[in-house]
């Protein structure tokens, strides 16, 4: 779905299944990882899940996580997405999240 | 872009222009409202901006706000999106955000 | 708990009870409103709940909402807080959230 | 500031300096790390910064990051905080964030 005006997005999302009757969410997040693996996008699981790529693909991957988590039985899902774009520098695909952390580390190591 | 498996999304997003040299963001948010008006989706501005509709259209509208705010000169943008979907009840298009507030008010008025 | 270096905070939080066995959250959010009413802080319920005041008091009010929602039976809670501070202008207590919306409306009405 | 009813919080925050005239935020985030180091709390920098401990201490550490970033010249700051508490299990201090990731990895490795 990426098009010529599709901004490159560096994102992090935190998906919360609701109404599940159990406080644990690890099973749902694991299912999301299987979906993200299929998306071909670069991702990394932490408090939220880092994900980056063309905006439309990042959005579709998160949407498909919702579909998968609903299919696993969660009647409602609330997700928080932090998403950033920039036009001042070209981001080498797949390096946006790592580069952010590295720039901070470089400053602190001086 | 809405398709058969496109979940209905009730969202709220908070867009932050970065590197603009001025702390005020009202001009950028006003530009976003013009974009949202064109999207045809239901929206309402508060701390963030409520927005609801098919997931792909909601995502595209926010993406287009980024495009517009970059075009206004912001080199970088960070947006926080809260987005919810549910399969336990059918949401009448355009009523998702209002209905959430009303259910709380109904409980408090008892 | 407000002290001399306690920044004035304009916030919006979205509290999500987890593991409750029911997708509806209106009852929990209503309980939060009762807590906020007692806090004496300015608040307003929408997608999230606007809340403003000295940072420590805003934080304590949200913490006490967690305590109340746990007491109502939710074993786990995930909250997303957007919180802003600024030093470029003095915010008249209780007007921070409304003023943000008004500045956007003023621009659009021109 | 931790008291008997101070919930243990597992959090992740993303701090955004506004009105700085430069899109880069690495210098500000590095300053935050120095503040967090002094707080004595467990933290880890990624897209956002993981931080955990008693709610009041977590809140104060983020507040002090705002103070430090304002002192560095940012006139306005917008922060997104994801914060979770739970009463169904005891969290060993300092292990909340790591344990969340590990439970997902354990499921996927089966």
TrEMBL record, chains A, B, C, D:
Signal peptide: none annotated. InterPro entries: MTH1187/YkoF-like, Thiamine_BP, UPF0045_domain. PANTHER family: UPF0045 PROTEIN ECM15 (PTHR33777). GO terms for cellular component: cytosol. SUPFAM superfamilies: MTH1187/YkoF-like. It comes from Lentinula guzmanii. This is Thiamine-binding protein domain-containing protein. Pfam families: Thiamine_BP (PF01910). Residues 11-91 form the Thiamine-binding protein domain. Gene3D superfamilies: 3.30.70.930. Belongs to the UPF0045 family. The lineage of its organism: Eukaryota, Fungi, Dikarya, Basidiomycota, Agaricomycotina.
């Amino acid at each position: 779905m990426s098009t010529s005006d599709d901004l490159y997005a560096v994102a992090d999302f935190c998906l919360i299944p609701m109404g599940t009757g159990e406080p644990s969410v690890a099973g749902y997040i694991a299912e999301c990882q299987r979906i993200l693996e299929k998306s071909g996008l670069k991702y990394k699981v932490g408090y939220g899940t880092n994900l980056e790529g063309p905006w439309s693909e990042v959005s579709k991957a998160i949407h498909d996580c919702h579909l998968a988590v609903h299919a696993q039985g969660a009647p409602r899902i609330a997700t928080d997405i932090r998403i950033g774009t920039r036009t001042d520098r070209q981001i080498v695909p797949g390096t946006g999240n790592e580069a952010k952390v590295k720039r901070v580390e470089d400053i602190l190591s001086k």
